[in-house]
Fold this protein.
Amino acid sequence: MPQILMDPESKSLEERFALIKTPRRNRPRYPEACVTPVAGEQEARAGAAPTRNLHPALVYGPSKSSEGQRIYYLIRWLD
């Protein structure tokens, strides 16, 4: 995992439980279009569908990348 610099005073960047749609789980960050924030850990775990490449995770973001995309950083997978 890459080291993520977290800003405790940020109003938009925060840790969130989410579902990430991806066939590969080896990336340190994911575009906003692949990430669906959910209310909590139970919702993330319940929404998981590995056969549809939908995986529960704890993420940090969204942040703006140098390419101008909004991205989420993976903190850890929940499964």
